[in-house]
Amino acid sequence: MSILQSLPSAAETPIGRFQSALLVIAHPDDETLFFLPTLQGLQAAGTRVAILCLSTGNADGMGSVRTEELRAACNVLNVASEDLEVVDHPGLQDGRGNRWSPYLILPVVTAAIGKHSAEVVITFDAWGVSGHPNHVAVSEAIRPITAR
Predict the structure, then answer these.
(1) Is residue 56 a contact partner of residue 85, using CB atoms and an 8 Å limit?
(2) What's the Enzyme Commission number for this chain (predicted)?
(3) What are phi and psi of 38, to 5 degrees?
(4) What is the CATH number of domain 2-146?
(5) Does the chain have fewer CB atoms within 10 Å around its N or its C terminus?
(6) Do β-strands 120-123 and 2-4 pair in parallel, antiparallel, or remain unpaired?
(7) Cα separation of 116 and 87, whole Å?
(8) Which residues lie across from 122 on neighbouring strands?
(9) pLDDT tens digits, 59-95
(10) Are 127 and 92 in contact (CB under 8 A)?
């Protein structure tokens, strides 16, 4: 995981200094599998966390179920319903064989940053934590707009 931002570097900025953060994930369950300690740490420091999920996770035809599971997880994790957005775009479908274009990802992320007044964007590292191509695509798309 990496904290990517256009503010002072993560090393220079205490975690509690942010009013709002945007967590950008590829699929429902990424928030729990890969980012739970970060999410909880930000919340404990008083940061409001919004989640942008770029797909419904429909690789196995379970997208509606996985989306509802994400909503339930956010309820348990104290992420307000208005702070969760799940995208269902034909070009951003879950699957290792599906190539996601940064030209599709970038405007969605930019809009979410503005909507939530996010001071910091959190997403996958360059390897996508697990090497999943959808995770890697998210990292590659976001890095240019958040890096110094």
Answers:
(1) no
(2) 3.5.1.89
(3) -65, -45
(4) 3.40.50.10320
(5) C
(6) antiparallel
(7) 16
(8) 3, 23
(9) 999 999 999 999 999 999 999 999 999 999 999 999 9
(10) no
**Helices 102-116 + 133-146 axis angle, to 10:** 60
16: alpha, beta or left, given left = phi > 0 and alpha = psi -120 to 50? alpha
Res 147: pLDDT? 59
SS (H, E, C) 24-37: EECCCCHHHHCCHH
CA-based angle 16:34:75, to the nearest 5? 70
| pLDDT range class, residue 15, cuts 50, 70, 90 | low
Does the global pTM surpass 0.85?
yes
Interval 100-110: pLDDT, tens: 999 999 999 99
| Cα–Cα distance, 66 to 62 (Å, whole number) | 6
**Coil, helix or strand at residue 122:** strand
Rounded CA-CA distance 83/106 in Å is: 18
- Please count the other Cβ atoms lying within 10 Å of the Cβ belonging to residue 66: 21
